[in-house]
Design brief:
Distance between the termini of chain A: 69 Å
Radius of gyration of chain A: 22 Å
Oligomer: homodimer
Largest sheet of chain A: 6 strands, mixed
CATH topology of the largest domain in chain A: Rossmann fold
Number of helices of chain A: 14
Strand order of the largest sheet of chain A: 4-5-13-10-11-12
């Protein structure tokens, strides 16, 4: 199947379960399901439109609860065929929702604080959710190569999922990435192509490849498969509510890179309300950025509707998108729900990584330091209500960003004797 | 409570669920539950004796299936109190049993090949299972400090679990460990004490500390809490059988460090048979070592009953125990079940890590390279039957042993142009 940039009505019908069509988020124009991401009318972003009309609430709840311990328990709400759980895929999700009582005490939160810990995914980041979803779309469209541009988590998620599913993978990265990151991406044995240039050059090249016959049969998970890929983030909303006993949290703190994850979590919560799976009551969504890449936070504070791009300079590299595509939608959701968008310094990020590890035994990636740091800041400022149920996302694993806490070391060095032990005051 | 090396009958009664007593594996002498690990009669190792007499098979199965998605679903079969799932702990387990069809094709296994992937645990190794168990024993005995000697996975598991449960932790390591390993162990904020000496010096010091008043109130997870700690490995057997649909696998390949894990998996399988939860039919247990530390494999091949210590020299550091305490028991189990013990070179370990990543998208620690490498070798040799259901354990995560595959790199470097892309033969 040839790759298209905009939708046409000639796309053949595919079985992606309840997904009925692609719909433009700007103008509402609908087209058939296909490997397209921009509206032919207005060039707005396309997203999945579903037909959930046949579902009975209690039957649906029972079906979900009887499903597998991964994102496919929500297959009835995702753009995937009915038998998805039996196809070879990385099967992420159903990660732990940790009741973080020690952290709550430190932050002064009394209404219940939870960490949704996505470091438990197969390649230890939330990217497994979106890639698993994109893989099913790629399969439906007859693609044989899974691809992306990446500087980290996404490369590993694409490499692993492609390996499991028997796809070829071809991941593009800047050629001068750190050796450790190259190893993590290369170990799955797909093509790993270094591009002589920076990350912008890599992205520009990928866009060119998608429009070229050389890219035929290629599914770029976050470009021509983006509408499907992005839906993977809805599963975070579903899991949080089901793990709370089919209850909406009052407040959720979500990291912002492109902003897609935050908008899809909001979409997922709204779907659960519409389907009657949770009670319809208000919830507040909070966005978290690092100060060194805080275009959405800056716009929120300035009262702007548009997001002014920034040149990223932060240790939170998995969030370092200076021109976030979904920024305006994030602003809208934060304002509509009564939430906020806030940022923290790199120093606060590191402090928050240590705080989470020390209180809950969870070693988070820098992105997790951002959400925990922002949570602390917003509680102190009285913006987050400490008496309400609050969920904080940790989207990645500290083992991938060891440099952030490289200063952490031995608390004492002693000779192997009890005298030395006592002298060090350890008894 | 004072720390004791051998059991006495004066230990107060504690509630550890179905655990009835400690029983000597050598002479069968029984003593009350307490923080002891060696028999007062013969100095043999103590292990938990259970009272399972009250269980009805179908009620027990239903109770397990309705339990949480972690090891506490098996609380009725573990030395833990009934309400364990509600206490603060790291809650490991219920990790994925991956049907490894691609790997099976490469190895020529037709009877069903599965990887039990324990990299999905909270700190990404099977050590979370045993530490979670030791933590509950520590709580029952009134200890307030959790401790161990370690060079890697165990340090992280103890640090994380202690943090979550509100225990003090104090981990002893050789002072000159690699900085990355120190960071992974230190981030949880407990005491991390470097000992001027090698790993043997660290262990010797810990044994001294346990016998000294300075060690009062300290639970050393793999010393004075060892009988409880070791039981955590039984949960691997339970999960494998439940995930196979309450069915025994025909063959299991298990890594050998001290040998404890292998003996406890065998114990777990036997319990499931006795309880009627699985059909009573033969299974074979295979042990896997790295050639550079293969004392059990050497004894197996030589037909010996005793294990001659070796000085370890292998990249599989998490298995590098030259004098494995449970070696003789491992030999007995491998022979009794019709299994075997085999070893592979470091080069084969690295090849096997790559093979597993390339075929199944699972990035294993060196220990996983050992089990997959041994599986490949045993199939080739006709020792493992390729027509039988086979389970291979991956007990750790590749992110912790990146050095093993450090040579992995870019498959191509190109300029950001389609011409350069075509020249590289990537189209």
């Amino acid at each position: 199947m040839a790759v298209q940039t905009v939708a046409s009505t000639s796309t053949p019908t595919v079985d992606l379960g309840p997904a009925a069509a692609l719909s433009c988020r700007e103008c509402g124009h609908r087209v058939s399901l296909g490997p397209v991401f921009a509206c032919e009318e207005c060039f707005g972003p396309l997203e999945i439109a579903y037909d959930f009309s046949a579902y009975d609430t209690e039957e649906l709840r029972a079906r979900i609860e009887a499903g597998p311990a991964n994102i496919w328990r929500y297959a009835p709400l995702l753009p995937v065929p009915a038998g998805v759980a039996d196809k070879p895929n990385i099967n992420p999700g159903w990660t732990k929702l940790v009741k973080a009582d020690n952290l709550a005490r430190e932050l002064g939160v009394t209404g219940g604080l939870f960490v949704k810990d996505d470091s438990g995914n197969p390649t230890h980041s939330f990217k497994d959710r979106v890639v698993a979803q994109a893989l099913e779309a790629a399969r439906a469209f007859g693609f044989t190569t899974l691809s992306c541009s990446s500087t980290g988590n996404l490369a590993g998620a694409v490499g692993a999922a492609a390996a499991r599913a028997g796809f070829r993978s071809c991941v593009f990265i800047p050629h001068d990435l750190e050796q450790g990151k190259i190893v993590m991406a290369a170990v799955y044995g797909g093509e790993l192509v270094g591009i002589e240039g920076n990350y912008d050059d890599v992205n520009r090249f990928c866009s060119e490849l998608i429009g070229d016959p050389a890219g035929e049969g290629w599914g770029f998970v976050n470009v021509n498969l983006r509408p499907y890929y992005a839906e993977g983030s809805k599963t975070l909303a579903y899991e949080i509510c089901e793990q709370l006993g089919w209850r909406l949290p009052d407040q959720i703190v979500i990291p912002i890179a492109s902003g897609s994850q935050l908008t899809k979590i909001d979409k997922g919560l709204k779907e659960l309300i519409e389907l009657g799976l949770v009670e319809d009551r208000p919830y507040k969504i909070f966005g978290a950025q690092a100060e060194g890449c805080s275009p959405v936070s800056a716009a929120f504070k300035a009262g702007h509707d548009v997001v002014r791009p920034q040149k990223p300079d932060t240790i939170a590299k998995s969030l370092a998108i200076g021109n976030p595509a979904d920024g305006p939608y994030v602003l809208d959701i934060a304002r509509r729900t009564g939430g906020a968008v806030e940022d923290v310094t790199d120093e606060e990020v590191v402090d928050a990584i240590r705080l989470l590890a020390r209180t809950e035994g969870i070693f988070a990636e820098t992105a997790g330091g951002v959400t925990v740091g922002v949570t602390r800041k917003l509680v102190k400022a009285g913006v987050l209500d400490p008496t309400k149920t609050t969920v904080v996302l940790n989207t990645g694993d500290g083992l991938k960003t060891l440099d952030a806490v490289a200063g952490t070391g031995l608390t004492a060095t002693i000779r192997p004797t009890l005298d030395s032990f006592r002298e060090a005051g350890l008894a």
